[in-house]
């Protein structure tokens, strides 16, 4: 298969927080892969901007080391890396002061696409936006890329939107949710809207329920202090799981264009019903083996922050009335896996009798590991002895189906950054979407606080608290097995 890479226009990309963890683990290695793929033009420039004092050479060395460490086995020639590094520079900048801004402004070229990636803590977003203006770096065509978390509740998200809006138009603001950059997530839209096969069945009449799972095996580890102020609801559900839910549930947009897609996603969030407390299960992992408990990690022996959440959501519109959406996410679980499963209803009548058992079509969209999709279909068990039915998966693992081209589909960040350069906001969250998502989650979080809700303990290496199973069992359903 021939890979098609469309080069982007020349650009100046400034990465604020260019020495930080995210820049070293994701952003720069991703940009290097785009460079190797031939997508980055000769005139592209990347400028790291952070607090540390260092020159271009020291920064290039930092980035070379990061690419080697976090390249995920990506192989390349030393000369290729050197050619990439030549495009990279560094300016020490104080986001809250005046140091470095004049030098940074001096490095910008006129008439070139300008993008500023805010890979710093959210408390600095407003300072950066303001200084980009006061120091004359922001042009009418500049873009800013904003990392999560985008607020910690509706009020703070509104305030942040308002601050950014003082200096940038909405079409200049790219709020990143890297889940939207995943190949499978985009494939979900291709499958839904590119085939005639699924869309007629994509509604409450044929879909029994939908499960969205994002499970991790790691604990909060060194991020315990930060995570403890957040929890699974804020850290995962309000953004990543909500975005997946939107793409699964939205009406077909008239075009695959930014506002058409985001208008439809927004309608889904606004149609979410408030959740009853007994339709949410919060959990917190206990100690296990030689691993500490959540509370040890968080260094807060009384912490009531959840490291696991499972909930049942309903969307009140014609398409989905009566079809539950079950969402779960957690840390220190049995397997690292993320998937969306569309579980279709039973055939209305079984001509094979009760002995044939209950069989259901399930479309499972795997985000990790091994991005791909499977469709369980019911067939006859081979051999003599009557009509016994079994479910077999039609498997489309991208790495198998696409061969070498699957190499191209690795990381979400690199795709999203290229979209920023192209000026395509389709896979970025709009301000009103983020606010609507907080408006839905805020009362749930507030309710726990008022009730003094304590999360249920669960053993590491399991599928979470038993109550999560009960959430499903009560409805005569069960979670799909967590497996890698
Ligand atoms: P980090 O602490 O590793 O890096 C922070 C960076 O900001 C450093 O380069 C530091 O020099 C710079 N910085 C801090 N104060 C500054 C100032 N006053 N002026 C200029 N530069 C300053 O953080 P990180 O993990 O890279 O995260 C960056 C952002 O990305 C955060 O908003 C985080 O929530 C978000 N994020 C990170 C990850 C991840 O995997 N690390 C994932 C998703 C989102």
UniProtKB/TrEMBL annotation:
One of its GO terms (molecular function) is glucose-6-phosphate dehydrogenase activity. GO terms for cellular component: cytosol. Residues 189-480 form the Glucose-6-phosphate dehydrogenase C-terminal domain. NADP(+) binds at residues 17-24, 51, 148. It catalyses: D-glucose 6-phosphate + NADP(+) = 6-phospho-D-glucono-1,5-lactone + NADPH + H(+). Residues 14-187 form the Glucose-6-phosphate dehydrogenase NAD-binding domain. The active site is at residue 240. HAMAP family: G6PD. PANTHER family: GLUCOSE-6-PHOSPHATE 1-DEHYDROGENASE, GLUCOSE-6-PHOSPHATE 1-DEHYDROGENASE G6PD. Catalyzes the oxidation of glucose 6-phosphate to 6-phosphogluconolactone. This is Glucose-6-phosphate 1-dehydrogenase.
């Amino acid at each position: 298969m021939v890979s098609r890479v469309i080069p982007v226009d020349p650009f100046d990309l400034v990465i604020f927080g260019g020495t930080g963890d995210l820049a070293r683990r994701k952003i720069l290695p991703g940009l290097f892969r785009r460079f190797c793929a031939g997508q980055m033009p000769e005139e592209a420039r990347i400028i790291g901007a952070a607090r540390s004092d260092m020159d271009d050479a020291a920064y290039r060395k930092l980035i070379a080391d990061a690419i080697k460490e976090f390249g995920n086995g990506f192989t390349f020639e030393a000369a290729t890396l050197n050619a990439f590094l030549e495009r990279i520079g560094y300016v020490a900048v104080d986001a809250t002061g005046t140091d470095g801004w004049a030098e940074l402004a001096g490095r910008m070229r006129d008439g070139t696409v300008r993008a500023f990636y805010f890979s710093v803590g959210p408390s600095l977003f407003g300072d950066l936006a303001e200084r980009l203006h006061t120091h004359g770096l922001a042009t009418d065509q500049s873009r800013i890329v904003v990392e999560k978390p985008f607020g910690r509740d509706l009020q703070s998200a509104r305030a942040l939107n308002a601050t950014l809006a003082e200096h940038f138009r909405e079409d200049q603001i790219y709020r990143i949710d890297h889940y939207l950059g995943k190949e499978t997530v985009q494939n979900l839209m291709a499958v839904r809207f590119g085939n005639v096969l699924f869309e007629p069945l994509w509604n409450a009449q044929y879909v029994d329920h939908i499960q969205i799972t994002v499970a991790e095996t790691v604990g909060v580890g060194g991020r315990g202090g930060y995570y403890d102020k957040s929890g699974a609801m804020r850290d995962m559900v309000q953004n990543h799981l909500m975005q997946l839910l939107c793409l699964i549930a939205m009406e077909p947009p008239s075009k695959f264009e930014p506002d058409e897609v985001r208008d439809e996603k927004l309608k889904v969030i606004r149609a979410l019903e408030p959740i009853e407390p007994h339709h949410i299960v919060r959990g917190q992992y206990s100690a296990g083996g030689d691993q500490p408990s959540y509370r040890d990690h968080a260094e807060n022996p009384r912490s009531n922050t959840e490291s696991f959440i499972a909930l049942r959501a309903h969307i009140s519109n014609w398409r989905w009335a009566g079809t539950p959406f079950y969402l779960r996410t957690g840390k220190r679980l049995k397997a690292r896996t993320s998937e969306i499963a569309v579980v279709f209803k039973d055939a209305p009548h079984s001509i094979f009798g009760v002995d044939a058992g209950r069989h259901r079509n399930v479309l499972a969209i795997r985000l990790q590991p091994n991005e791909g999709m499977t469709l369980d279909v019911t067939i006859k068990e081979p051999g003599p002895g009557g009509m016994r039915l079994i479910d077999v998966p039609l498997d489309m693992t991208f790495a198998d189906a696409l061969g070498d081209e699957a190499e191209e589909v690795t990381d979400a960040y690199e795709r999203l950054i290229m979209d920023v350069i192209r000026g395509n906001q389709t896979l970025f969250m709009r301000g009103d979407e983020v606010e609507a998502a907080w408006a839905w989650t805020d009362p749930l979080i507030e309710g726990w606080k008022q009730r003094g809700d304590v999360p249920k303990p669960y053993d590491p290496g399991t599928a979470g608290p038993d109550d999560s199973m009960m959430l499903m069992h009560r409805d005569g359903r069960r979670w799909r097995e967590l497996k890698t």
